[in-house]
Design brief:
By secondary structure, the chain is an alpha+beta fold. It has one domain: Gcn5-related N-acetyltransferase (GNAT) (Aminopeptidase, 3-Layer(aba) Sandwich). About 35% of the residues lie in helices and about 35% in strands. The longest helix has 12 residues. It is globular and about 40 Å long.
Length: about 140
Amino acid sequence: MSSDLDSLIDLDAIAQQELRRREFIAQAISVGQCWVAVDARDTSVLLGYGVLNDSFFEQAFIPLIVERDSARRRGVGSAIFHELESQCEAAKLFTSTNASNAPMRKLLGKLGFSPSGQIENLDEGDPELVFVKLRS
């Protein structure tokens, strides 16, 4: 687990700076809530990772998706979302992003997520937008 955690921290600029984020990732790994995307040609190359849990009012929730900068716009984020969704058994799947994160908002629309609300005062001047995907 230590090497897995180290690899995710190396990929995640926030985890490199914040102990709380490192602890969150370690916990997600330990309880099997973390999934990774690797390069199909070289599985030792980590392209991104995501976490699926029930931390949002006990609802299925994707609190974190991280992509390697060089993997952006290559379908890695979509692949991570699809994998997390395939692991989800709930009828509703939630996620969120800052209002300022236009690329993520665009991706969520493409993936069938709909706006579901807004949370103020988490990041000053940048509301957190909540999205949901209703699944059959």
